[in-house]
Specification:
It is built from 13 helices and 18 strands. The protein is α+β, with helices and mostly antiparallel strands.
Length: about 375
C-alpha cells in the first residue's frame, strides 16, 4: 500500500498512540487479512519498508526434509531439494518468502483490510485505556450520569470511557438522574468483547469514605494524619480510626473540622451517613473501648478473638446502638467479637454472707439470633 506511513502517523496523532504500536497493529491487520483471503492455514509476515514507506506482505514457506514434505501442505512446506533449486544456500528450518500483491486480491480484500485495521486500532486504544485506568483503581473518579436502567444500575460517562454503578454498590436510598455528576470509587476495569472497555464503580466500599476524607482533610492528604481503619454500614453509619504523626495535631479534630464542616461535607456526599471519628490505638483494649463510643467503658479484656467489655448498665444501650449498629461497627473496626458485661452495681448481704448480683452478658450473636 502506498502512503501507509502517512496513515500510521495520522492514526497515532489522532488517537494519542505511539507510532511504534500503531505500526505493529497495522502489520497484524495485514497478516490477518492475508490469512482470511488466501487461507487460514498459511503463514504471512508484514514488514514496513523504510525506504519506500510501503507495507510489504510475504507468504512464508518452511523448508523441511524431502521425506516430510510429501505429507504436508505444499503451500506451507517445501522439501529441501526443491527449495535448493530456488536458493542453493537454503537449509532445513529456513523459510522461503514470496511477496503478496494486495492490489491483485480485489475489493473484498480491501474491505477486509479496512475492517481489520479498525479492529486492531480499537484493541490498541482499549489496551491503553485499560492501563491508564488500572492505575486509578481505588481512587475517586467522577462522571456524568447518562441513564439508569430498569434494574437501577446507573451508567456514567467518564471522559473517553463508560462507567457503571451497579445497584448493589449504590448507597441505600440514593437516586440519580440523567445529567447529574456522580462521584464513586473505581472498583475495577473491565474489557468486554461486546461492550469494550468500561469501569465498575462503587459508593459502598470503605475505601470511598477514606478517599473522601483525603479530599476534605488537608492533614490526611499531606500525611500528617493517617486513616488506620474504616468500617461502614453504607447509608447508615461509619467509624473511622485515625492517628496523628505530629504532637501538635489532634487527628479527630482535624477530620471533624471547625463546627464539623469537614466531616459534614463527607457525610453529605454519602447520603448523610453518620460518621464517628475515633483516635486509633495499637493497644487492643484501648482501641476496643474507643470504638464503642459514645458509650463509656469501664474495662476491656482480650481473650483470643473475643473482647469482653465491662460497662455500667446505663451505657449498654449506647454501646449497642440502634438495631445493634454501634457494636457491629466496633466489631468490624477492631476485628474482635465483642461481648458486653454489665458492671456490678451493688452488693447484697444475705444471711450474713456477701452475695454479688449476677452479671448479665450480651454478644453480637444474641443481638441477631432472632
Amino acid at each position: 500500500m502506498e502512503k501507509i506511513m502517512d496513515i500510521i502517523e495520522s492514526i497515532a496523532h489522532e488517537k494519542g498512540l505511539s507510532v511504534e504500536k500503531v505500526t505493529e497493529a497495522i502489520k497484524r491487520a495485514f497478516e490477518k487479512t492475508a490469512k482470511r483471503i488466501l487461507g487460514e492455514e498459511l503463514e504471512f509476515e508484514a514488514e514496513l519498508n523504510e525506504k519506500s514507506k510501503k507495507m510489504e506482505v510475504y507468504q512464508k514457506i518452511s523448508v523441511v526434509p524431502d521425506e516430510e514434505a510429501k505429507d504436508k501442505n505444499p503451500e506451507r512446506y517445501i522439501g529441501l531439494s526443491e527449495a535448493k533449486e530456488i536458493d542453493p544456500d537454503v537449509e532445513v528450518g529456513d523459510e522461503l518468502r514470496y511477496e503478496v500483491d494486495f492490489k491483485k486480491l480485489g475489493r473484498t480484500a480491501a474491505m477486509r483490510l479496512h475492517n481489520e485495521i479498525e479492529y486492531h486500532i480499537q484493541r490498541l486504544i482499549e489496551e491503553q485505556l485499560f492501563n491508564k485506568y488500572k492505575q486509578k483503581v481505588g481512587t475517586i473518579i467522577s462522571g456524568t450520569v447518562t441513564r439508569v436502567d430498569e434494574d437501577e444500575n446507573t451508567y456514567v460517562e467518564i471522559d473517553e470511557v463508560k462507567g457503571i454503578l451497579p445497584r448493589r454498590y449504590r448507597i441505600k436510598g440514593e437516586k440519580f438522574t440523567t445529567g447529574e455528576v456522580l462521584k464513586a470509587i473505581l472498583k475495577r476495569v473491565i474489557i468486554d468483547k461486546v461492550y469494550g472497555i468500561h469501569l465498575e464503580l462503587s459508593r459502598t466500599t470503605p475505601k470511598f469514605l477514606e478517599e473522601l476524607l483525603k479530599l476534605e482533610v488537608p492533614e490526611v492528604k499531606d500525611g500528617l494524619v493517617s486513616i488506620e481503619k474504616v468500617a461502614r454500614i453504607p447509608g447508615e453509619r461509619a467509624k473511622v480510626a485515625v492517628t496523628s504523626h505530629s504532637p501538635k495535631i489532634d487527628p479527630v479534630g482535624a477530620c471533624v473540622g471547625v463546627k464539623g464542616v469537614r466531616i459534614n461535607a463527607v457525610s453529605k456526599e454519602l447520603n448523610n451517613e453518620n460518621i464517628d471519628c475515633i483516635e486509633y490505638s495499637p493497644i487492643p483494649e484501648l482501641f476496643v473501648a474507643r470504638s464503642l463510643s459514645p458509650a463509656i467503658i469501664t474495662a476491656v479484656k482480650i481473650e483470643g478473638d473475643k473482647a469482653i467489655v465491662t460497662l455500667p448498665p446505663d451505657q449498654k444501650s449506647k454501646a449497642i446502638g440502634k438495631n445493634g449498629i454501634n457494636i457491629r461497627l466496633a466489631s468490624m473496626l477492631t476485628g474482635y467479637e465483642i461481648e458486653l458485661v454489665e458492671k456490678e452495681r451493688k452488693e447484697e448481704k444475705l444471711l450474713g454472707e456477701e452475695k454479688t448480683q449476677e452479671t448479665p452478658k450480651i454478644t453480637l450473636h444474641d443481638l441477631f439470633k432472632e
